Amino acid sequence: MKITSIKVSSHYKKSFRGLSSHIQRKAILRIKIFRENSLDPRLRTHPLSGKENGKMVSGLVF
Fold first, then answer.
1. Residue 46 sits in which domain range?
2. Which tens digit of pLDDT belongs to each residue from 2-58?
3. Cβ-defined contacts of 46-53 (< 8 Å, 24+)
4. Which of 34, 48, 28 is nearest to 3 (CA)?
5. Cα(25)–Cα(51) distance, rounded to whole angstroms?
6. Fewer Cβ close by (within 10 Å): the C or N end of the chain?
7. Helix/strand/coil for 56
8. 62 in a domain, yes or no?
9. Beta partners for 57?
């Protein structure tokens, strides 16, 4: 599934700027993978439960 837009919080933007350039590059690569295929196994996508039942989350952790 190709993703056309991603919402990024101001907190994420601020945190991202504080990362080393090496980690920023890794994060950008993960986001590119996510945009092309949100179900890519490298992202460890899995369904949520409880109040968020039916939604999916991907591991964009770097």
1. 10-57
2. 777 878 889 989 999 999 999 999 989 988 998 898 888 888 888 888 888 888 777
3. none
4. 34
5. 33
6. N
7. strand
8. no
9. 46
Question: Is residue 4 included in any domain, yes or no?
Answer: no
Q: Look at the chain and report how many structural domains it folds into.
A: 1
pLDDT in tens, 28-43: 998 899 889 888 888 8
Dist. CA 14–CA 2, nearest whole Å: 26
Contact by Cβ (8 Å): 26, 62: yes
Cβ atoms 61, 34 nearer than 8 A? no
57 close to 46: Cβ distance less than 8 angstroms: yes
**Token pair 């945190």 is at which residue?**
15
Does residue 1 sit in helix, strand or coil? Answer: coil
